[in-house]
């Protein structure tokens, strides 16, 4: 696993190696972007008989145009549908580069996105070349489940049922092939991040995913995996839950709790400073706030930067 890079932005991204198109079932593809750290997401696409459905886009204009080229390299058919797994900009900033597509997402994905901005995050992530992008929220929304047909393929868009990574997480489930596009409910090799959702809800979401009995999972970040990745993320969230309960009871701040914690093997994962944001969310739940309640994100990100030694968070988007 690569360590922190002395390079920033585009040059650092080149050192990560090119994105990979992985066929996870006949005509179903994951688009995996190394290394899966901040703002470097996975997407996917499903090739039908006369059109294509994409799963998420990317964070920057350059990355989204590369994703479009990767789709075209597989099939010249038009992308007429984009499914957003959640509102985060690494999965949605590039929506505008699919002007011929309907954008589908959970009702709360749209609610958050209509007030979303692109960029303006230098204080947190350093300089990023976002490119020319316009926020484009879903124009088709649903509260629980929406069934798509992509050619002969049944595709279930399922709200995960609880605040988890965000308050509007949708998984894309291919029941015949047992392939799951999990969005950011699963990270593979990166630190899970529930600051904008719920820790306890994230654990419930993992149970829901396990209940589908997926054979192949495309996580929101990191390589394509199997169901074993569910247990690994569950271990982290269980550890985090215990840490939060003990530190909250002892009166430690989230930042102090994170600094004093032994992350063990979790320290090797990408973006370990997310532990601080996760503790902020866990504390809110210990204080009795309903799952997914708005909390002070600026303070949480400030504490993550402090945990990181005061430097902007490593971002190679
Ligand atoms: Zn996300």
Kindly list the characteristics that best describe this protein:
317 residues; alpha/beta; Metallo-beta-lactamase, Chain A; 7-stranded mixed beta sheet; 10 helices; 32% helix; disordered N terminus; binds zinc ion
Summarize the structure.
The chain is α/β, with parallel strands linked by helices and 317 residues long.
Description:
This protein has about 325 residues and is an alpha/beta fold. The chain is built from 10 helices and 12 strands. The chain has a 7-stranded mixed beta sheet. A hairpin with a 2-residue loop joins β8 and β9. It is globular, with a radius of gyration of 18 Å. Zinc ion binds near residues 88, 165, 184 and 220.
- Tally of individual helices: 10
CATH hierarchy: architecture: 4-Layer Sandwich
Give the full name of the CATH homologous superfamily.
Ribonuclease Z/Hydroxyacylglutathione hydrolase-like
Helix-strand category: alpha/beta
Order of helices and strands: HEEEEHEHEHHEEEEEHEHHHH
Number of domains: 1
Question: Within the largest sheet, what's the order of strands?
Answer: 1-2-3-4-5-6-7
CATH class: Alpha Beta
Strand content range: 15-25%
Q: Compute the gyration radius: what is it?
A: 18 Å
The biggest beta sheet, please?
7 strands, mixed
* Ions and ligands: zinc ion
Tell me the helix content: 25-40%
Secondary structure elements and pairings:
Elements: H1 9-15, E1 20-25, E2 28-32, E3 43-47, E4 52-55, H2 61-74, E5 79-83, H3 89-92, E6 102-106, H4 107-113, H5 122-125, E7 140-142, E8 145-150, E9 153-159, E10 170-174, E11 179-187, H6 199-212, E12 216-221, H7 228-249, H8 254-260, H9 274-286, H10 297-307
Parallel strand pairs: 4-5, 5-6, 6-7, 11-12
Antiparallel strand pairs: 1-2, 2-3, 3-4, 8-9, 9-10, 10-11
Helix pairs in contact: 6-7, 7-9, 8-9, 8-10, 9-10
Bound molecules: zinc ion.
């Amino acid at each position: 696993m690569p360590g922190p890079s002395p390079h920033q932005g585009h040059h650092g991204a080149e050192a990560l190696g090119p994105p990979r198109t992985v066929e996870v079932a006949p005509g179903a593809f994951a688009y995996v972007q190394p290394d899966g750290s901040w703002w470097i997401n996975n997407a996917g696409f499903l090739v039908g008989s006369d059109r294509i459905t994409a799963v998420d886009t990317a964070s920057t204009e350059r990355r989204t145009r590369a994703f479009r080229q990767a789709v075209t390299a597989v099939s010249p058919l038009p992308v007429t549908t984009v499914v957003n797994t959640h509102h985060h900009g690494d999965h949605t900033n590039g929506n505008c580069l699919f002007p011929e597509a309907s954008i589908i997402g959970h009702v709360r994905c749209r609610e958050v996105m209509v007030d979303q901005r692109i960029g303006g995050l230098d204080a947190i992530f350093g300089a990023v070349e976002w490119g020319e992008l316009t926020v484009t929220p879903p124009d088709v929304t649903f509260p629980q489940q929406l069934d798509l047909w992509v050619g002969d393929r049944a595709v279930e868009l399922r709200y995960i049922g609880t605040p988890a990574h965000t308050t509007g997480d949708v998984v894309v489930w291919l029941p015949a092939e047992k392939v799951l596009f999990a969005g950011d409910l699963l990270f593979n090799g990166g630190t899970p991040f529930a600051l904008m959702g719920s820790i306890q809800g994230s654990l419930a979401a993992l149970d829901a995913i396990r209940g589908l009995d997926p054979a192949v999972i495309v996580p929101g970040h990191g390589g394509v995996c199997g169901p074993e990745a569910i247990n690994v993320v569950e271990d982290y969230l269980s550890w985090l839950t215990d840490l939060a309960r003990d530190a909250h009871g002892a009166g430690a701040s989230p930042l102090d709790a994170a600094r004093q914690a032994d992350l063990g093997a979790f320290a090797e994962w990408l973006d370990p400073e997310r532990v601080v944001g996760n503790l902020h969310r866990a504390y809110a739940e210990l204080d009795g706030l309903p799952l997914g309640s708005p909390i002070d994100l600026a303070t949480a990100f400030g504490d993550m930067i402090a945990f990181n030694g005061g430097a902007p968070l490593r971002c190679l988007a």
